[in-house]
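Recall the central idea of this unit: under ordinary conditions, the amino acid sequence of a chain determines the structure it adopts. In this exercise we apply that idea directly, starting from the sequence alone.
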Amino acid sequence: MSDIIHLLPDSVANQIAAGEVIQRPASVLKELVENSIDAGATFIQILIKDAGRTLIQVVDNGKGMSETDARMAFERHATSKIKSADDLFSLRTMGFRGEALASIAAVAQVELRTRREEDELGVLIEVAGTRVFKQETVQCATGTSFQVKNLFFNVPARRRFLKSDNVEKSHILNEFYRIALVNTAVAFSFLDGDEEIYNVPASNNKVRIENIFGKTAKKKWQQQLLTIETSTNLATVSGYVGKPEFAQKSANQYFFVNGRYMRHPYFHKAVLLAYSQMIQASESPNYFIYFEVDPQTIDINIHPTKTEIKFENEQAIWSILTAAIKESLGKFNIIPSIDFDQEGALDIPVNANPHNIRPPQTNFNPNYNPFGSSGYKRPELDWEKLYGDFSTQTEPVKSSVDWDSHSDVPSAISSTYQEQQQLIENIETRAENFQYKNRYILTGIKSGLLMIDQQRAHTRILFDLFLSQIENSQGISQQVLFPETLELSPDEALFFEQIMPDLQRVGFDFEALENNCYSVKGVSSQIGTGSVIDLLLDLLEKAQTTGLETTSGIHESIALSLAEASTLKSGQRLSNEEMSDLIDRLFACANHNFSPDGKKIMTVWSQDDIDSAFR
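Accordingly, the structure predicted from this sequence is:
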């Protein structure tokens, strides 16, 4: 029997490695930009086409490579970052495994141009599917230029499972944010085709945050960021956290350690603990937190993408982080303490002889009578005018109770003639529906008493209406007299373009402007009063939270946001006709028992339950 274990060919092994490292176009961008940073670049230009499917180009002004290094860079496990296993525990560079370029070259067509400053000419290398097709000397600028074309051209299944362009662009922008937010000494230029999305100069951390996320007026980053700063023997924690009132459902949350982005659920819980009782459970705070620790106390080699990091002193750093955030929030919220510094204080004169102080004197008239002639005088009443219309009143209702003979009846039970008459009229012409505390509708049914939450019922009605309009394009547009401008960041604009056709189906009318801005010229006729811009931004947050994976999920998210913005407010009084119309429309819905978010709309008390309550 022949042996069955054999070594994989290099081409197959490289594709397997590529499956771990290169998951989508954003993975390519991450690896190339990190290599540029390790090369000492101070300016990096990024260009993508077709969300990275057609082209991902990264150009830097780093130190470049020699011809031999350029060729060796495409070999597996070829790296300049480590020489022994001990170096794995003292890493301060971004890349170190030596798998990135080999993995990219295994699933794409790669063109590399690079030159060192001391060399007169550079080198050009073209690789596709792990095979080197060209290597020659060329004239090029100092630094390195990578062009990755036709990603997954030789793995059709991987290419077919890529998401839509907007989704892939969103992942690319997220990787760009993670790198740009921590490498503030590097200037970046980001182009999508011929359009420049970002051009951020070298700066400090706070200015970099403003340059990336400060395009939308809603964010107000300069006003919402609070500085945190603490240094211990275990770690140095610095950065910024958002004020509680700026918390949102899709918050910007970033952890960095030694210049590297990381995900850390344990530290995320520490941040949420510091904000406990300050924000709603459905919201999250914004934070940009940077850790500096001894490289020997962390392990960054536990995940192929190097975004999960193991800390040696997690519990201690957890306490340090929580204390630092609470201190920053405390400085923002507490009342200013008393300052005993006398510099600049008021010069209050002090009496040199305290024995000469005279107590204040009070003068009053002991003979003053508040009930004298100058007091209150009872006005005279015209009794004839008061009883002038008495003869025009109808006869009182006959009753078996002789009210005149019961002079000791309590005032809470006795009533005037007009109050009795009004009560009889209400009983005779009583409504079929009754509104309790302007929140619930009570109406009689054959089996007993039905109680409906009017706000949840209206939300269900509007949700079904908006969902039908989105799916059937039946919305009615109402033009606005003064169009408002919706300002978005590049990643928000990607999501907005995805949901814009659905909004137009319910009646919204938009006009695209420059710099990711849109003019709102019309709104749905079903939308209630309020800020249309706030409604659209809130709707966009929910769409980002939901993700753009399924069309039905996006439709439901949009319909729910519009319904919640237009529904009846709590405590709104309704007429009998309005209550009847609301009940009829509710029972016309396919699901009239529960609201879109799964809450109960109505409850029924049977006749037996009501009778038993009076036994």
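The mean pLDDT is 77.
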